[in-house]
Structures are given as structure tokens and as C-alpha cells.
Amino acid sequence: MATPHFLERVNDNLFVALRGAFAPDLDAPAVETIDAQPLVYSWRDLDRGTAMLANLLDSLELPANARIAVQTEKSVEALMLYLAVLRAGFVYLPLNSAYQAGEIEYFIGDAEPSVVVCSTKNFGWVSKIAFLAGTRQVFTLNDDRSGTLLDRAAFHDDRHAPAKKRADDLAAILYTSGTTGRSKGAMLSHGNLLSSAVVLKDYWGWQDGDVLIHALPIFHVHGLFVAIHGALLNGSKMLWFSKFDAKAVLAQFSRASLFMGVPTHYVRLLGEPGLEREACSAMRLFISGSAPLLPETFKEFRDRTGHTIVERYGMSETLMLTSNPYHARDGERRGGTVGFALPGVRVRVVPGAGGPIPAGEPGNLEVKGPNVFSGYWRMPDKTREEFTDDGWFRTGDVGSLDAQGRLTIVGRSKDLIISGGFNVYPAEIEGFLNESEGVLESAVIGAPHPDFGEAVVAIVVPRTGATLQPDALIADLKARIANYKVPKRLFLADNLPRNAMGKVQKNLLREQHRGLFAR
Ligand code: AMP
Questions:
Q1: The domain made up of 416-512 is a member of CATH 3.40.30.10
Q2: Is 460 a residue whose pLDDT tops 80?
Q3: Which atom of ligand 1 sits closest to the CA of residue 222?
Q4: Rounded distance from Cα 313 to ligand 1 centre (Å)
Q5: CA of 295: how far to CAs of 108, 224, 401, 511, in Å?
Q6: Of 373-382, 398-407, 431-440, which one has max mean pLDDT?
Q7: Which of 93, 145, 154 minimizes the C-alpha distance to 120?
Q8: How far does residue 51's CA lie from ligand 1's centre (Å)?
């Protein structure tokens, strides 16, 4: 007997909300590729493509909450795969396309995905790691629409009823990291993702006719969630770049209304002589996040284009937390600050052990809200440590709130380096360096860099009698870890500065190397 209608529970699957917001004309363009073979995907294409992929996933008879780990180049088909994983009710696990064997081995071992999708060129080593870790299926997907994933999906029906999900069911795991120990998988639910997307749609005034330039990677919270959910939830077309290129992006400003970038993108855009008012006259909104936007960049962009960048602040564990206002009624956009707590989000500044501190004084940032993740994958102790007894998440960032509630980030309590918008964890690079022959110990820090925000710098102490070549150490690292983590400069030293407790005084090293990349 069919379930009576009134007993059916509401389906909180994020895909259902996104699908419900597709443009009413399903044949209208949803995604247009710009820097690859020029193709236009309609809303119907997205619906059919995700249905076929979801049916393929269903046919594999995977366990509930199976993780689908994806390390591919950016493509519209990779976007469809993400949506298909939501649609079928499994858990999406994106991996940075730059990760090498040592990193992939850790993520696959930790997350135990049932399915892994990788580029054909990496199939040999990725599949070996995956099968050893118990993965059932390894598919390939390339940025030219080839690969076994699409070959197999082609046999499946192009209609699919989305899996029933509750708001607190797991939708995605984003691997982040700590300065000590290995990466942690932040568990995000359908409800976390939808609540953040709904708030941003309203706060940033998404409107009919908006067109988004999407030039961010799609393995990170910014490009995967903030940008994609924003466009889909508004039924807005995306102009899709496989990578950011300042000149090519600038050329599309006349056809778009929104751009989301990391500070490095804005620095690069300012390097283009064509960036002036006329070129940006069709644009409505420029958003920056993932790393601090220098006040000089904020000001120069306004002087050149007449647009005031909206800087926002968030993280993998919490999605978006604060934003400078879009509407003038909510206040002015102020450079060097990350604005106000978003509706429904609470932000407090604590001196360490808890309790309120005076407005304007910096302290540890703690946050609460429907957007905040439930915990780290299979790390209950770490999860307990990072949440207070009354349920606030300790962000690890240090900042101050003014009397109006405007937040300024002043630093990170841990030593995270953000280079070109990517997080680099010194402890990880130090680990690789310390394993190298002839290395006694090392310290990795970030030095201010005009283009990348921060650049990775390493200080290495050789073992007695060993002769080390900085260039050879760098070349060795390049073969082992993603390029953005490899130190831009490496210095040899007789010893590292330490405090009385034996801890390396990285603040002294940072000070020493502060002017290294000054223009
Ligand atoms: P991720 O989890 O990769 O998004 O990195 C999150 C971290 O990036 C935060 O904890 C902050 O330290 C930093 N971050 C993100 N947005 C901003 C911003 N607008 N200003 C300063 N730091 C930021």
C-alpha cells in the first residue's frame, strides 16, 4: 500500500532544493565553458546528467553513507558528479587535484571511500592505493568528457528520484588540517550546506539575470559550495573557467554580474591594464575570501573600477561566517575587515579559557550556527577538543569585534600559511623535510608575498657533516607534494631559535624573513 501523503517526511536532500531552483525554462543555458572547448549546458543537461550518474551510483549497491572520493581536473562533468552524489544520497569527498601519492594514500586510508574517481593519467597509482584500502570501484573522469565514469553512466536512465535525506545527514567531507598531526575530515550535512547557501542568496542580493564567473577550484569550500550553490539556488548561469586567468576573466566581465575570487585573483586582475570602470560596468558584485585581502588591494580595486569588493570570512568546518554588507542599509563595506556575522550565525571573541572580553580587543574566535559542522570524521577526541561545553566551535582564528559587531581577523592561533588562497600546514612540510637525507630539523613559516598573500619559506638545519643544497631539497619536495606547498625559498641555518620550553620561536623567524618578497 502506498504511504499516505501526510505521513511522508519532507526531503531535506540539498539536491532537491537546488533542483527546485533550476531556471523554469530547462532549455536555458546553465553553464557555459569559456577556456575549454566552448560548450553550453542547459538546466535540462544538468538534470539528466546528474540523474544518469546518480543511477550509476545506485546500481553499485553501495552501503549507506558511502564516501565517493573525487580527484579530477575541474570540469562541468565533475560538477555533475558532485550533484549526483548528493542526489543519490552518498557522501562527497573532494580532493585537491595537486595532491600526490603520499597525500592520497592518507585520505583514502582515512575516509575508506567505496568509490574513487580520478583522471586517467593517475589511474595506475590511484587505483593501486584505493584497491589496497578496500575501495570497490575506481572510475576515471577527464576534463574532455572522456573516462569510464561517463561511459558507464551512458547506460543509465536519465530520470532519478532523489534519495530521502534528513537535514543532519552527512553530505560531504572536506579535509582540512591542523598545524600538528594529520588532516581532519570536516563532516558537513545537507542542512549545513543549505542553510549557508540560503543566507548568502539573500545577504548578497542574488537577483534575476545574475551571471556568475566561476574561476575557482571545485575541491574547496569557496568554489564548490559558496559559488556553485549560490548560482544554482538562484537559477543563474555560470561562465565556467577551468582555471583562473586574469585576462580571460576580465574579458567576460561585460557578460557577467558576479565574480568570486581569492585575494591573489584581485592582485592579478589589478595587473591587467584593461581593468577599469568601463570593463566592469555590467558587474554587480565582487566577492573576496579564503585569505585576507590587503587593504591596498581593496582600495586600488575601488579606485580603478568603482566597485567596492565585499570581503567575507569562513572556513571548511563552518562554511560562511561573516561578510561585509551588500546592501547599504546593512552598513558600509570596510577594507581590512570581514564584516558582520551573517544572519543566524553567532561569533564571539574569547580570551582563551572563555567569557566575554571588551569590544575591540582581539581574542580567539568561536562560532555557532546551523552552518557549523558536526565534527571531524572518526576523530571524536579532536571534535570534543574543538567545541566548547556549550557548543561553540573554536575556529583557531584570532580577531576582534568592534562595538557594532564588525569583525577584523588579526591572525591565526595556529601557524596555518595561506598561499594563493590554499592552506599550507607547516608541520606537514616540516615532516617531509625532516625525512630528507642530511636534514636534522626544519621550520616552515609564511612570509608576506605581494602576489600570493603569503609564500612558504623553510629554514633547514643540516646534520653535522652533511652538505645540503637548497635547490636540490626543493626539487625533491616538488616530486613528493603539491606545488603550492613547496617552499619558494629555503635557507640553511646552524640552529633554530627556541624558547625556554624548547619550542621553536616561529615569530622570530617570521620577523627575520618579513621583507623577503617585498616589491
Ligand atoms: P579553509 O578551511 O581552507 O576555507 O580555511 C579557513 C581559514 O582561512 C580560516 O580559518 C581563516 O584563517 C582563513 N580565512 C578565510 N577567509 C578569510 C578572510 N576573509 N580573511 C582572513 N582569513 C580568512
A1: no
A2: yes
A3: 4
A4: 6
A5: 40, 26, 18, 21
A6: 373-382
A7: 145
A8: 34
Classify domain 5-23+39-195 by CATH number.
3.40.50.12780
Q: Which residues line ligand 1 (CB under 6 A)?
A: 176, 221, 289-292, 311, 313-316, 338, 395, 397, 409, 412, 418, 423
For residue 34, CA distances in Å to 38, 104, 210, 241, 491 come to 6, 30, 17, 6, 41
The domain limits of the chain are 5-23+39-195, 341-413, 416-512
Cβ neighbours for 153, distance < 8 A, ≥ 6 positions apart: 49, 52, 53, 55, 56
C-alpha cell at 495: 640552529
Pocket test for ligand 1, best of 407, 409, 485 (most atoms within 8 A of CB): 409
- Fold equal for 341-413 and 416-512: no
For residue 512, report the distance from its CA to the centre of ligand 1, in Å. 25
CATH level 3 topology of 341-413:
Luciferase; domain 3 (2.30.38)
Q: Judge whether residue 323 has pLDDT over 80.
A: yes
- pLDDT tens track for 342-377: 999 999 999 754 556 677 777 889 999 999 999 999
Which pLDDT score, from 0 to 100, does residue 501 have?
39
Looking at residue 166, its amino acid is R
